[in-house]
């Protein structure tokens, strides 16, 4: 048993509330990613689980027992830091073995565990080097190795990849996924990069202003965002939003946009809404509903292209198209979507669903 | 400013000229001290600019057990003060530099204020305290008393240095199960080399040179430190001052400091400015 | 925490560690500074003698009356203040000049920095002895050179002449402590941003104007801190006068006066009163200096 339970957890710095009542249960062996814009409290929440920040209110349980007052070292947690935080005066071998040395393990066992972890991470040829002599990616591997040798049931990652360049980030992402597959430790991973969250997580926790905006599997968050914030945050390029008005007409609801009216199945809500459609769900030249648009720019990405469109009122939206569509900037075109792929949000930015759905 | 080639050359010559003047002003007294110490007997009273390389004065001063003893005393005092003040200051600096607790700022202010205390204002109270501790006329009295000017300074400088060390390294150590003591000993101490060298050197120099307390708390010759020993060397009358011996003793006391100043110039300067600029 | 006394928060634990780590230093500083300071003030109201400090009676302000009626005390106060003002002024001006010189980008700069560090790092007693010998009335090198140059016919008694002894002490102090000023001001100079000088040069601002309009105002905080340190040091000057002219009333500083009463005359009461008065004097000077400096800063908007 090494699940984590957060029960109405609150963090205050003086008068400022940074975490405002978070409830969350993380199952044993699960890979959970905290994601959100900077300042949303994701790192603070992780540091509270680690024991590096005190919990102002609420309760933290690990494997069922209250941990609020337990010092970090006794929570059976290993952590990887954004800056790697390697000890600059120790070589890789000592960096890896330091926690075990601190725990007074026999030298032979320390060596065995260090060697094993180093092999696993392919850094066994670097054991004599100092951190300053390593590349960023190698330092990252050592930092992960340092957590691995402790053989804990719980892993915390605090934005571990944000200091790496794009190539290495991809490589390490795969590596972290592999480690989780093989070690099967419960993992909490903090990032501001939704792509990392989507690819790594069993479940994603989206945080905003110290509260949970939504929890769910990557596909749940992608397919059924609970609110406009999550809809905009998950997915790249961002979801397009268009303002509109929803009116009830008999057994149907009618959505009025700047470019036309669209009949939808009945909604209980009526009033101002925003319509959200992902770029990949926009269809050039077709769909259940269409708008007239002026092509602003076509960005070819190779296999696909991003088409920037002006849909009137100076509003621009982005559509993703396969290959390289035969349209030029300045041309007028029709863009459309299927109702099943459209998202509606009320004026409080909550997702709207048709009656009965 | 763009100058002509001749103008630039004149400028350089002027600056090197001034360098020479400053160096002469600074170094000539040392030259004269060493030169005088190397003249034997009455030769010291003939003003000649070149020394005659006679070591009589050194033989005299070094065969005198009292001076050697005071050298050893100075060394013991200075080394103990460095060790003790650094040990205490490192612990205090960890608390003040890394932990956010109520009372931190008042304590920083207290240390700063204490470092400004004039030594004379403590003399009678310290006298009583030293007697009460049974340290009067022992080297212990000086090691104790010198804490007043070394400890607050060291704490101040090391605190600023500690604060500049990355926070995540300490947190990594906490996660690795280190106690605060182990964090300081195994993680921070090895990272603090330059700061420790600076503060240690300054504490050494200050203790080696101190005069007022050394004069007051030590009663007998065998416990004196060198500055007092040199100050108390005297002849039978004002006109028979053993200047040769005094210059030889002064040279012996000064040489280690000059070597230190030349070797560790960078560290001494950074310690001095850290204390002043950031203070 | 809400649920009982056994639960000590992590922050509280950290704070407890902090106090634990601070305790030895606080204890030592209490024993070596705060307690003695308190006792000094206390003794200043008693008739204690150094030989038996345990036996004393309170005699109110009498020690202070004795002290303030002593012309020698007032002379030592005057000496100290005169010495402080003159020596610190010269050291600041000279220190600034040498710092500017050493800031020139020339090879040999590092060597020069090491050289000027030397006078500051050796014992004041040694410096005093060195200069005493160079200033010797019969055999001193200075008189010898002056005689060679035909400036004087017979040797000047530099440290015995009441009119000369104070200037001599100041001159030696300048030699000893100017390096300190140089190093602090140099550190300040090296923190100044290079780009503003480049901008000023492009704008055709003369070097002298650059110095008065840019360097001096930007350097003011560094200089002010350095001066404060020197001020505190000069006000408690002891060793230089003690060695160079121990018997002269013309260079007796307050520190020498207080120690003389305390140790030589064994009068712990009056000696402590003098010590207490020095403490207050220095505290007042520091307070005034810091206040004026802050005010200036505010006015200048630095």
What secondary-structure arrangement, pairings included, does this model have?
The complex is a heterotrimer of chains A (357), B (279) and C (302).
Chain A: E1 4-13, E2 16-26, E3 31-35, H1 42-50, E4 57-62, E5 65-66, E6 77-80, H2 92-102, H3 107-120, H4 136-148, E7 154-158, H5 166-183, E8 186-191, H6 194-200, E9 203-208, E10 211-216, H7 218-223, H8 228-233, E11 240-249, E12 252-257, E13 260-265, E14 271-277, E15 283-284, E16 289-300, E17 304-310, E18 316-322, E19 332-337, E20 343-345, E21 351-352
Parallel strand pairs in A: 3-8, 3-9, 6-7, 7-8
Antiparallel strand pairs in A: 1-2, 1-4, 4-5, 9-10, 11-12, 11-14, 12-13, 14-20, 15-19, 16-17, 16-19, 17-18, 20-21
Helix pairs in contact in A: 2-3, 2-4
Chain B: H1 5-37, H2 56-63, H3 65-98, H4 104-115, H5 123-132, H6 139-145, H7 147-163, H8 167-175, H9 180-191, H10 193-209, H11 212-217, H12 226-232, H13 243-263, H14 265-277
Chain C: H1 10-43, H2 62-69, H3 71-102, H4 109-121, H5 124-134, H6 141-148, H7 165-191, H8 194-202, H9 207-235, H10 239-244, H11 254-264, H12 268-300
Helix pairs in contact in C: 1-12, 2-12, 3-7, 3-9, 4-7, 7-9, 9-12, 11-12
Main location (chain B): membrane
InterPro entries (chain B): BP-dep_ABC_trans_perm, MetI-like, MetI-like_sf
Protein name (chain B): Trehalose/maltose ABC transporter permease
Structure notes:
- The complex is a heterotrimer of chains A (357), B (279) and C (302).
- Chain A is an alpha+beta fold.
- Chain A folds into two domains: 4-232, P-loop containing nucleotide triphosphate hydrolases (Rossmann fold, 3-Layer(aba) Sandwich), CATH 3.40.50.300; 237-346, OB fold (Dihydrolipoamide Acetyltransferase, E2P).
- Chain A has helices spanning 42-50, 92-102, 107-120, 136-148, 166-183, 194-200, 218-223, 228-233, and strands spanning 4-13, 16-26, 31-35, 57-62, 65-66, 77-80, 154-158, 186-191, 203-208, 211-216, 240-249, 252-257, 260-265, 271-277, 283-284, 289-300, 304-310, 316-322, 332-337, 343-345, 351-352.
- In chain A, the strands form four sheets. In chain A, strands 6-7-8-3-9-10 form a six-stranded mixed sheet, sandwiched between helices. In chain A, strands 13-12-11-14-20-21 form a six-stranded antiparallel sheet.
- In chain A, strand 20 and strand 21 form a beta hairpin.
- Chain A is elongated.
- With 279 residues, chain B is mainly α.
- Chain B has two domains: 2-37; 56-273, MetI-like (MetI-like fold), CATH 1.10.3720.10.
- Chain B is 74% helix and 0% strand.
- Chain B is globular, with a radius of gyration of 24 Å.
- Chain C has 302 residues and is an all-alpha fold.
- Chain C has a single domain, classed as MetI-like (MetI-like fold, Orthogonal Bundle), CATH 1.10.3720.
- Chain C has twelve helices and no strands.
- In chain C, helix 9 (207-235) runs antiparallel to helix 12.
- The radius of gyration of chain C is 25 Å and the shape is globular.
- The chains are: A alpha+beta (357), B mainly alpha (279), C mainly alpha (302).
- Chains B and C meet through helix 1, helix 3, helix 4, helix 5 and helix 7 of B and helix 1, helix 4, helix 5, helix 7 and helix 9 of C.
